[in-house]
Design a protein that fits this description.
about 250 residues; mainly beta; Immunoglobulin-like; 3 domains; 20 strands; rod-shaped; Ig-like_dom_sf; Ig-like_fold
């Protein structure tokens, strides 16, 4: 077993290439006559002396691989994973066969950790009516899994979790809300933020205080702030403002 280099742990970022390399410690007397490279129960690549290398460029839908052999006979083998994704993270295993004893298998392990800073999907602005529930969702990707929190600008406090909800919205809930995602990669804190704006519209009713129709509701349709204001201005124009009242519901 001492004739082959040991196990390997690799850390790399999403989109980069990762290389697992093993070599013979005594290339003059010990070199590789075959090997199998695996991830879990899936064989990614196989090779043996005198046979064409069998390492497809696209082994699975999420795996891109390439093989390098060095020396003659081969005493250094490198398996490269191209354009790594988080899905490529995990344990790998290589099984060697040497010319010293071709019938004896020698196993070595490799562990790949794929690092990915937080990424937040843009969040659309939201409009709700007073009394309704505000619901904001922050879709976040990253590895290690980021911690997520919501805060309202100027409020001085935050709420943990990807989803922020506030029942019974009022005018004071109008404002900018910020989603913050944080993870730590090799000791460095990575932070990303995404903002969205929430508008809470008040509802109004226009009532008539007529002598013969005391406190009769002119319209029972709830209007937005802008619609109600326009209706009120029209009433002023016909000089009947003393007969009507505009009140929030």
């Amino acid at each position: 077993l001492s004739d082959v280099s040991g196990s390997i742990s690799i850390e790399t970022y999403v989109g980069e290439d990762a290389r697992f390399s093993w070599w013979s410690l005594n290339p003059s007397t010990s070199y590789f006559v075959g090997f199998t490279f695996e991830r879990g129960s899936s064989t990614l690549c196989q090779w043996r002396t005198g046979v064409t290398v069998n390492c497809p460029g696209n082994v699975t839908s999420t795996f891109m691989g390439k093989l390098f052999l060095y020396g003659s006979p081969a005493s250094n083998i490198t398996f490269e994973i191209k354009n790594v994704k988080v899905a490529n993270e995990g344990p790998y295993k290589v099984t060697f066969r040497e010319n010293i004893d071709p019938t004896t298998a020698i196993e070595r392990s490799g562990v790949l950790t794929v690092l990915d800073p937080p990424e937040i999907t843009p969040i659309q602005n939201t409009t709700v009516r007073a009394g309704e529930t505000i619901t904001l969702t922050c879709a976040v990707a990253g590895n290690p899994t980021p911690s997520v929190s919501w805060s309202k600008t100027g409020s001085g406090h935050s709420t943990g979790g990807n989803v922020f909800t506030k029942a019974g919205a009022t005018k004071t809930d109008t404002g900018q809300y910020v989603c913050t995602a944080v993870n730590t990669i090799t000791g460095n804190t990575q932070t990303r933020t995404e903002s969205t704006y929430v508008m809470v519209k008040l509802l109004y009713e226009v009532k008539c205080k007529c002598s013969m129709m005391s406190n009769v509701l002119i319209t029972n349709q709830k209007k937005s702030t802008e619609d109600a204001t326009l209706a009120w201005l029209l009433l002023l124009l016909v000089q009947q403002s003393s007969l009507f009242s505009l009140s929030p519901t």
